[in-house]
């Protein structure tokens, strides 16, 4: 049995759901509510599964996998169709680089635990917290728009005409931006790609609002 | 000609240097001083190269690559020996997951631009900034130690008896911790692996102190 530990609003879990859906793989959802009961990610049983107390975790038989990008690359190696990465090393580097621009430069800064640290430990105001969120999204999306808008390798999706690793990272990040009412007017290429993704059932079914724990 | 744009103190550039050295590849260094002249990463010519204004960038003939992990995976695909990732998908997922625990959960939070935002925009004190740095290093290294110490797949290095992707990420992160005088006493496995890495010339030659721009 394949089981994904996640939370509807976690964008890393959203990535894993898109990847599983694109590969056409069945999975059971185990909901780890990140804000209820002091945070279910801190429960001893969950820490045994993932000492990082982060979602997602993918269990596949005996196997326990953490870190969404490692999970997605694993799925792509074990279930090659449809591929998440192009064929040539150069193109693969392009797609990984686009994905990492989201996964390493935006998302880690706007994680729940980081926002909590700002409020609890650094005593920032709600406005400062929202501005922090906005700042890192805009700082990250601006060069991503530049790169995608000016490269002929960009197609209907981040790379060519089929969705892949970069789209899997982009869509949840844009969903976060929208949830925080951040205007995406400056990012027409990103918005166009997101719309192309969200026209597809694997993306729709993975969306936060489509999850059983959605609030 | 292969050219690496970097800065001696950038731990993402340090990763790329280790990877190039382990593969035995020659490269020229182009120094992008991140704090001098208002930050050379913001110069128009550099932004053309990398709109993210981050280091490293690898130029390999016509090819321009950004994002250290994408660069390292590219080098591993094009120059397979010695491999940075094990053979099986399961083991590869393990190594990628360990690497991402550093690259996605620690390093992005302690980047120069983030520390600057804390000081300039959120007006935190020097003590608060240092505590932030310490907090995210300890939060990240603690589960990494747990995972590595309790897994028989850990060997002389993060995975088995040869250095790979996870070691390439770990060593620069521990160098950062030491630069900020953070005690590593609670991380005997990480320290042991770091010592095994730093006994090797490719790691030694990549170290910040061995770079021409070292201060």
Word description of this protein:
The structure is a homodimer of 215-residue chains. With 215 residues, the first copy, chain A, is of the alpha+beta class. Chain A folds into 2 domains: 2-81 and 204-210, Glutaredoxin (3-Layer(aba) Sandwich); 89-200, Glutathione S-transferase Yfyf (Class Pi), Chain A, domain 2 (Up-down Bundle). Chain A is 51% helix and 8% strand. Chain A contains 9 helices and 4 strands; from the N terminus they run βαβαββααααααα. A 4-stranded mixed sheet of chain A has the order 2-1-3-4, covered by helices on one side. In chain A, helix 4 (89-103) packs parallel to helix 7 (165-179) and helix 7 packs across helix 8. The longest helix of chain A is centred in the middle third of the chain and has 24 residues, at 126-149. Chains A and B meet through strand 4, helix 3, helix 4, helix 5 and helix 6 of A and strand 4, helix 3, helix 4, helix 5 and helix 6 of B.
Strand content of chain A: 5-15%
Largest interface: A-B, 47 and 47 residues
Number of strands of chain A: 4
Main sheet makeup of chain A: 4 strands, mixed
Helix content of chain A: 40-55%
Which parts of chain A are unreliable, with pLDDT below 50 for 5 consecutive residues or more? none
Question: What's the number of helices of chain A?
Answer: 9
Could you say which overall geometry of chain A the principal axes of the C-alpha atoms support? globular
Oligomer: homodimer
Structural class of chain A: alpha+beta
How far apart, in Å, are the first and last alpha carbons of chain A?
Answer: 27 Å
Order of strands across the main sheet of chain A: 2-1-3-4
Counting structural domains of chain A, the number is: 2
How do the helices and strands follow one another from N- to C-terminus of chain A?
A: EHEHEEHHHHHHH
Question: Which CATH C-level class of the largest domain in chain A is it?
Answer: Mainly Alpha
The rounded Rg of chain A comes to: 17 Å
The CATH architecture of the largest domain in chain A is Up-down Bundle
- CATH-assigned fold name of the largest domain in chain A: Glutathione S-transferase Yfyf (Class Pi), Chain A, domain 2
